[in-house]
Amino acid sequence: MKDETLNLILTEKNNRNTIIVATDIISGEQLIISENNDSEINNKILLAAKNNIMHGKSEVLEIDSKKWFINISLPPLRLITIGAVHIAQPLAEIATISGYEVTIIDPRAAFANNQRFPDIKIMNDWPEEAINNIGIDNRTAVVTLTHDPKLDDSALNAVLKSNAFYIGSLGSKKTHNARIQRLKKSNFSDYEINRIHGPIGLDIGAKSPQEIAISIISEIISTRKKFEFNGDN
Amino acid sequence: MKQFDEILHKAALWRKNNKSVALATVVSTWGSSPRPVGSQMAISENLDIHGSVSGGCIEGSVISAAQEIMKTGVPKLLKYGVSNTEAWEVGLTCGGKVEVFVEKIGDND
After folding, report:
1. Fewer Cβ close by (within 10 Å): the C or N end of chain A?
2. DSSP string, A145-214
3. Any idea where the domains of chain A sit in the sequence?
4. A78-229 CATH
5. What ipTM does the predicted assembly reach?
6. Which candidate from B11, B38, B105 shows the least CB-CB separation from A58?
């Protein structure tokens, strides 16, 4: 692999772009596959790897009696957290370790700042506005942690109609039932409301903020794996 | 800023410090192999290691191949599995099979 190729892969990944690298596993010849490249071999590989690209599945393919390893790097998974509360601190850490790009949204700059969340992207905007600016895709999980309907519902307004693969809201059964009633009044459908995991997290008896963070990330991972198992990416 | 590919990021840092670097990538698996296709491990000439290509069963063998590949610049496809004659030395205890492509990073220097 050329230094140039390595640096290009890193740049594309950090810009949340999908990158496809084809490697001849016998000779080591390497190509970046792109729809903007019009070479014959590029187009042959694009065609042969159509299904792989659609499903994000890396694989060795035989093309013109050469064995090409088609390595498809999808953009990193994302976790968007509404509320820079105590639980958000261990959650941001464990989600980062698990490979998620974490963004914290909270208009209260006293809570949401890089002193409390080193190296984490912070947005001090109103949740609905911030979420609409980010743009939610099916590689994004969203959790609301504030307990404050003004903030949590603002986020849910933007998220319930999105493609987020996971939506979770912190709160007891009672809090969650109240949330459901409010969302119904705002004309969300049962299907949309049922997308919310609430009370949030896998039931591991979590009590401390750290334990609750682990239960939340476990539920996100479990939801993600089921999603991928169904052939989505 | 956080890097989204720690392994390649490490490899790029080593290259910036003018180290020889090899990259091992799992390209095929059969049966119950521990790490999925696309898993990577970067190895520097100082034997700094980042990432993995198995649960630890074949890394030793991959690293010694990588040292050779760093010198010659010639990539190699390594095959591991129970049916392999090498299985007695380095095989996958889980009974799976795996192919690992190892290449040098950097223009031949």
Report:
1. C
2. ----HHHHHHHHHHHTTS--SEEEE-S-HHHHHHHHHHHHHTT--HHHHHTEESS-S--S---SHHHHHH
3. 3-73, 78-229
4. 3.40.50.720
5. 0.87
6. B38
